[in-house]
Amino acid sequence: MLMAEKLKKDVLLIAPLKGVITGQAVISLAVVQALEKNEKVFQINTNFESMSTAKKVGKQIKALAQVISKFGRYDRVYLSFKRGWISVICDYIFLLAICTVRPRLIVGHLHGNEIFCHEKQNWIHRIFARNLKMCDQVICLNSYQKAQLETVFGLKNHIIVPNFSSLRVPLPKLETRLSERRRYGGLNVMYFSNLMVEKGIIDFLDVAAVAGDGIQFRVFGKPLKDGTPDAIMIRERLDNLPANTRYFGPVYGDDRLSAYEEIDVILFPSTYATEAQPLVIIEAMSMGIIPIVYDRHYASDIIPPQSDGGFRVKDQALKDIVVLLYRLRDNPEMVNRMRRAAWTDAQKFSCDKFLRTISTIMQSGNS
Fold it and tell me: Hey, which residues does 276 pair with through a beta bridge?
């Protein structure tokens, strides 16, 4: 039950923390930061990315044992819903175990859109529906997820808490960047994500291959798998880049600031079915970088229809993307205006607001 009185026991947090750096791990670590200011937090790490199925199962069993060992020591639970059918089952078992001790508050945090890709009568879908109903509050990222929770699952106990930019840029430096006059005939465009076909790397390279003079392209990211047909194709493309394109590999942490410094546009042509709210777009916009993305659910709250801070184009509309890049290349005033608009749009994805909202939810049970 949601309760507003002061809660006295500690918080149990089950989320991907240490391990492979993912957007979900970044958000989960921020939740820990928000809660540890006023609470004691029992942390159970479920970051099992890149492990074999057998190892994942073993790690999940160990995590369940940790949950059980903490019985009676917490009365609030934060669970970051994980991805994949194994994780859906494990979350169900976690929640069943947790409900036996009747904590005052269980909060589930939804990140990706995987569950909305399953047919309504699919067994994974049915288990996940039970997971949702065992939570007192469900955190979702955007209006699309909110609508899906209401129409597909009939869920009412949810709240939108968007992702945020973790980049910390001194305001004087940022103001200098936003006020900088762009030169005519020049434009720097980046791809920043895992190197996957679904994430748009091939479409990005196809645009770079036909772009005209003055437009430079930079690729940041790493391949996720070796030896697969897609990985081989991507590797071949990276080994034969056009003169206007450079590959820099993956970039993490504060190194992103220097990577973004000379960038005008982030081209993110992702068709990834479960894309929810890409942190990389929010972070780029917080640096005054103009996003060009496919017009999909993940873009709806980031680049509203009337926004001057970016472009949404139809899937595979590569010619339209090239035309947009030409317009930006040849119109420095447009670039300056849109960079500031992108930064303005990014302000609603505030880290401080995120931390305050999470803290309020977990302390009182109300948003």
Answer: none
What is the per-residue pLDDT for 73?
84
Query: Residue 189: beta bridge partners?
Result: 217, 265
CA distances, 132 to each of 145, 274, 302 (Å): 13, 18, 25
The separation between the first and the last C-alpha atoms of the chain, rounded to the nearest angstrom, is 14
197: amino acid identity, one letter: V
pLDDT band with cut points at 50, 70 and 90 for residue 305: confident
CB atoms within 10 A of CB 335: 24
Looking at per-residue confidence, does 172 or 27 come out higher?
27
Query: Using an 8 Å Cβ cutoff, are 292 and 311 in contact?
Result: yes
pLDDT higher than threshold 70 for residue 367: no
Q: How far is the C-alpha of 122 from the C-alpha of 128, rounded, in Å?
A: 10
Confidence band of 119 (pLDDT split at 50, 70, 90): low
Distance of CA 300 to the CA centre of its chain: 14
Mean pLDDT value of segment 33-62? 83
Q: Which of 27, 19, 30, 31 is nearest to 56 (CA)?
A: 19
State the Cα–Cα distance between residues 292 and 65, nearest whole angstrom.
45
Q: What is the largest CA-CA distance in the chain?
A: 66
Cβ neighbours of residue 138 closer than 8 Å, sequence gap 6 or more: 107, 108, 109, 110, 132, 149, 155, 157, 158, 159
Please state the length of the chain.
367
